[in-house]
Amino acid sequence: MRSGQMLVELLLALAVTVLVLVALVQITTRSIFSTRFSQEQSQATTLGTQAVEWLRLQRSLDWTAFFANSGKYCLQKLLWQPPPPCLPITGTIYTRTVTMTPLALAGGGAMVTAVVEVVWSEGSKNFTANQTAVFYKY
Fold first, then answer.
1. What is the pLDDT of residue 8?
2. Full DSSP string of 52-107
């Protein structure tokens, strides 16, 4: 009778150990995914910021040409490239576009709204990091 009880106790201890190990594996897997996603999102934000800074330079170099850029452009190499398709930035998983919306203001002023979108895929899901900047003619 005593050996039967020991066998049940052993099976119970084994079941509890397996449950704890499965929980630890799930937590570790989620942690790894979250870390990787955070790194990818940070990189996407950096690429978006680079694009906004490049747009700021373009505005400063030649407002008239900058204002004339209307619509969507691929910014794979930070050049005005019309889509489609937008190729990934060399050596990365990211594609980067900008949508330019120029607007003439009353009194001779002008502004351009630029929405930079950086897109990447993880498995079957697509993720996006957007940055919006408004540029005025000085």
1. 86
2. HHHHHHHHHH-HHHHHH--EEEE-SSSS-B--SSPPPPTTSS-EEEEEEEEEEPGG
